[in-house]
Design brief:
The structure is a single chain. It contains 18 helices and no strands. Helix 3 packs across helix 9 (195-204) and helix 5 crosses helix 18 (303-337). The radius of gyration is 20 Å and the shape is globular. It is mainly α.
C-alpha cells in the first residue's frame, strides 16, 4: 500500500505540472468542498469494518490527517478573515460567536447521546473523563481542542502584533501538546495539533507558496515518500502514526497546493462541507449506538451501500439541526454580542 500511496503522489505531481498555471487560490469554495470530503473520510475511518486494500489505505490513516486538515482550515480561515476585515471587525464578539457555533451543537449532541442511552453520565463520570482526556460524545475531542485554539487565537491577535501573535500561536500550541502528553492523554489530542498555527502561517506566505506551487509540492511529496519508505515492514497504520508529527503538516501543505488544481465544485460535496461540523458530532453517536449492526455480516457484504445510507441519514439530520436550531439561536445572540 506504500507503493500505491507513492503512485498517487506521482499522479498529483503530474496534474500540478499540467494545470498549475490555471489554478486559482485557496478560497472559500475550495475550503467548503474539502470539508465535505474530509468529514466522509473521518466517518470511514471510524467505522468498525475494513474493506478492500484501497479502502484500508483510506481508513488506516485518514482519520488523524483529516482532523489535521480541519485544524489547518480553521487556522487558515481565521487568519484570512483577520487579514481581510481587520482586527476590530474580527475580534468584536469573537468568543461569543465562535463558542456558540462550536459548543452549542456539542451540548445538544451530549444531551441526545445521554437520552438515547449512549452513556451513563454523572458528575463522577464527567470528572473522570476530564482527568483521562475522554469525551462524553465519541470523537468529540476535536471540538474541545478547537475551542482551545479559538481562545489562543483571540488572546494572541487581540493584544499583539501579527508577527508576535503568530509566534505565540506556535508556542501556545506546543505548550498544549506538551500538556496533553504530560497528562497521559490519548495521542489523538496532540498528534495533529501543530497544523493549526501552520494554517495561520499559510496566509502570511500565501502569495509566495502560490508562485512556487509545483516545486513546493514535489519537495513535500519527496519528504512524505521518504518517511513512508523509512518504515518498511511496519503496518501502514503504525507507520502513519509514528511519523505523523512530520507527515501531518506535509499532508496539509500538499493538499493546500494541489486542491485548487484538482477541485471541481460539486453541490452535494459543498452541502456536506457546510454541515461538516454537525456531521462530525453525529457520526460518533451513530457509530456508537449502532456498533452491533455495523459489525454484522450484512455490513461486510453490503458495506458501501450501508455506509452511504448512514451518511445520507446523518447529513439530513445535521442539515435540519443546523438550519432550525443553531441558525435560529445565533440570530438571537449575535446582534446582542455585536452591540
Amino acid at each position: 500500500m506504500t507503493k500505491l500511496l507513492i503512485a498517487i503522489l506521482g499522479l498529483l505531481i503530474s496534474c500540478l505540472r499540467q494545470f498549475e498555471r490555471d489554478a486559482a487560490g485557496f478560497g472559500q469554495k475550495e475550503g467548503t468542498c474539502l470539508r465535505g470530503i474530509l468529514v466522509l473520510l473521518v466517518i470511514f475511518h471510524h467505522l468498525p469494518v475494513r474493506g478492500p486494500e484501497f479502502c484500508q489505505l483510506v481508513q488506516s490513516g485518514c482519520g488523524r490527517y483529516a482532523v489535521g486538515l480541519f485544524f489547518f482550515l480553521s487556522g487558515y480561515g481565521l487568519m484570512t478573515q483577520y487579514a481581510e476585515r481587520g482586527r476590530e471587525a474580527v475580534m468584536q464578539g469573537f468568543l461569543v460567536k465562535r463558542f456558540t457555533k462550536l459548543l452549542l451543537p456539542l451540548l445538544v449532541a451530549e444531551v441526545v447521546y445521554y437520552l438515547w442511552g449512549g452513556c451513563q453520565a454523572s458528575i463522577h463520570t464527567v470528572l473522570e473523563n476530564w482527568r483521562t482526556g475522554e469525551t462524553l460524545v465519541p470523537y468529540a475531542y476535536f471540538v474541545e481542542e478547537l475551542a482551545l485554539f479559538y481562545m489562543l487565537f483571540y488572546l494572541a491577535y487581540r493584544f499583539c502584533s501579527c508577527r508576535v501573535a503568530l509566534v505565540l500561536c506556535f508556542l501556545g500550541t506546543l505548550g498544549m501538546m506538551g500538556t496533553f502528553i504530560a497528562l497521559g492523554w490519548n495521542p489523538h489530542w496532540w498528534i495533529s495539533s501543530l497544523v493549526f498555527p501552520c494554517g495561520i502561517a499559510a496566509v502570511y506566505m500565501q502569495e509566495w507558496m502560490d508562485d512556487r506551487r509545483l516545486p513546493l509540492f514535489v519537495i513535500a511529496a519527496v519528504l512524505f515518500a521518504v518517511a513512508m519508505l523509512a518504515g518498511q515492514g511496519m503496518p501502514l497504520e503504525a507507520k502513519l502514526a509514528r511519523f505523523s508529527l512530520l507527515l501531518c503538516p506535509l499532508a496539509c501543505l500538499m493538499v493546500y497546493l494541489v486542491w485548487p488544481v484538482v477541485c471541481v465544485p460539486n453541490p452535494v460535496v459543498s452541502f456536506l462541507g457546510r454541515i461538516s461540523y454537525e456531521m462530525y458530532l453525529l457520526q460518533g453517536i451513530a457509530i456508537s449506538l449502532f456498533a452491533d449492526m455495523l459489525q454484522s455480516p450484512l455490513m461486510t457484504r453490503r458495506g458501501p451501500l450501508l455506509v452511504c445510507g448512514c451518511c445520507a441519514l446523518m447529513a439530513t439530520v445535521a442539515w435540519a439541526f443546523n438550519r432550525l436550531a443553531v441558525t435560529a439561536i445565533l440570530q438571537q445572540i449575535q446582534p446582542k454580542s455585536s452591540r
